[in-house]
Amino acid sequence: MKKYIYLGIVLMSNFFYAQIGVGTNNPEAALDVKNDTYGTLFIPRTSLTSIGDKTTIVNPDGTSLAESTLIYNDGLSGLKPEGFYYWSNNNDSWICMTCKNDYGDVTYSLKTTDFEGWYLLDGRSITSLPDNAKMVAQSLGMTTNLPNTLDKVLKGKTPSETITSSVGSNTISISQANLPNIDFTGTTSSTGNHNHTGTTSSNGNHSHSYTDRGNSTVNANYDNRGDSGTIADDTSGSYTTGTDGNHNHTLDINAGGNHNHTATVNSGGGNTTVNSTRLSLVTNVFIYLGEK
């Protein structure tokens, strides 16, 4: 009893100086406890039921829990692991100060099932999780399912992206616009001898020259009309046909003329997508949601 009275006197006497010293007459803080033998059990010890428990610990003035309210959770009533926790208004939850891992931490592992508060990110419904893990998952923004990391790699978030959303693809479709802007040229082989056949145009007026050798057996007076000039007169000479006779010529190019043709060749592609997955070491991905 005397010890309590003495402590009360010490506390009252130091109140007026806004500093309290226990075991010292020269406190170096608002509360300074010095003892070489005993520890201090001054932080309330309790059993929180969940990360969002607002009923086990309350504010004495009836309002919301004050930011940084500190307690020691013994892990006996739902929320694990045990340790020192403080209340965060920003997260609307208790934050473990002494836990080895923080809620929402992600790790790679060769393990295949949940272990020690770590849950496999396999896309399962959060309703299948223990109550504590479910509440933690919801506080991290996972309202329906855990993310599914099957055949995915992790990347940093951009301002326009949402945490736990899936972006990108493991395959790429190449279009013509993705190809380099270069020209491909070539020629066909020159070893294939062949013929071309056809006709020339019929609308080209032209004349042909020829030589009339005459015909000595024809009487120059044969023409009773007296137009002997129209019959060969056995005189050599060069003459020209008229230019108004449209006609065709059959064309046959000799097969011995080797030559090239410019060719356009189709790529023959089938628009098959390209697998863009890099060479990787396959593991499982887990998120820490707290122990059961």
Sum up the overall morphology in one term.
rod-shaped
Q: Mind telling me the C-alpha Rg? A: 51 Å
Largest sheet geometry: 4 strands, mixed
Number of strands: 15
- Report the total helices: 2
Which regions contain 5 or more consecutive residues with pLDDT less than 50? 1-6, 218-230
Account of the protein in words:
8% of the residues lie in helices and 18% in strands. It has helices at 2-15, 131-139; strands spanning 20-22, 31-33, 45-46, 70-73, 83-88, 93-96, 106-109, 118-120, 171-172, 197-199, 209-212, 237-240, 250-252, 274-275, 284-288. The strands form 6 sheets. A 4-stranded mixed sheet has the order 3-4-5-6, with no helix packed on it. It has a 3-stranded antiparallel sheet with strand order 7-15-8, with no helix packed on it. It has a two-stranded parallel ribbon with strand order 1-2. The longest helix has 14 residues, at 2-15. It is rod-shaped, with a radius of gyration of 51 Å.
Topology:
Blueprint: H1 2-15, E1 20-22, E2 31-33, E3 45-46, E4 70-73, E5 83-88, E6 93-96, E7 106-109, E8 118-120, H2 131-139, E9 171-172, E10 197-199, E11 209-212, E12 237-240, E13 250-252, E14 274-275, E15 284-288
Parallel strand pairs: 1-2, 3-4
Antiparallel strand pairs: 4-5, 5-6, 7-15, 8-15, 9-14, 10-13, 11-12
